[in-house]
């Protein structure tokens, strides 16, 4: 049984967490419930423009205007995370996940929804956990759970997000952001 709802919070990989997409990643939890959790990796851009996988959205995507690897699940699908101008407004084609952030139906014409959005980021795939799995990984020390700031979701410098998120944390957690890229230099 989960103890708290992590929806809207950040999962920050601990320095020892594997290689690949989860290495030094910062993930935004899109949903967390009794059945499991879903999140997207915010700091793993890939060398592909949006137009290579999706028509009509390239010009609306925030910098850097590239596709992001959202996680290891369903890499052949695209997910659009958006900032919403007015969280009280119900926008056709946008499902709000928590205040100010939602998921856009990418079949909706971009020009129809863009007046109501502050930003768009397109992800290939997502990360997912079955019931209790994420909580176990947190207990085992794979993830730090921290609050997000408004600029985290659409950071124009995703390569530095892991360090920046950790450095702003209180106490000893801020020092983790100084952890060297190569453990041999520690």
From TrEMBL:
Pfam families per record: DUF179 (PF02622)
Family: Belongs to the UPF0301 (AlgH) family.
PANTHER family cross-referenced by the UniProt entry: UNCHARACTERIZED PROTEIN YQGE (PTHR30327), UPF0301 PROTEIN YQGE (PTHR30327:SF1)
Protein name as catalogued: YqgE/AlgH family protein
């Amino acid at each position: 049984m989960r103890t708290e709802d992590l929806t809207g919070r950040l999962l920050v990989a601990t320095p020892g967490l594997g290689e690949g997409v989860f290495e030094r990643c910062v993930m935004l939890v899109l949903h967390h419930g009794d059945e499991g959790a879903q999140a997207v990796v915010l700091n793993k851009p890939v060398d592909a423009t949006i137009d290579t996988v999706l028509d009509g959205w390239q010009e609306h995507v925030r910098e850097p205007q590239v596709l992001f690897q959202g996680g290891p699940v369903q890499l052949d699908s695209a997910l659009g995370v958006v900032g919403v101008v007015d969280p009280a407004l119900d926008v056709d084609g946008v499902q709000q996940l928590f205040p100010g952030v939602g998921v856009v139906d990418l079949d909706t014409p971009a020009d129809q929804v863009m007046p109501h959005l502050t930003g768009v980021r397109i992800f290939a795939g997502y990360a997912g956990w079955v019931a209790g799995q994420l909580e176990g990984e947190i207990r085992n020390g794979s993830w730090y759970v921290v609050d997000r700031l408004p600029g985290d979701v659409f950071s124009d410098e995703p390569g530095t997000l892991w360090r920046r998120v950790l450095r702003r944390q209180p106490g000893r957690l801020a020092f983790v952001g100084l952890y060297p890229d190569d453990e041999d230099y520690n």
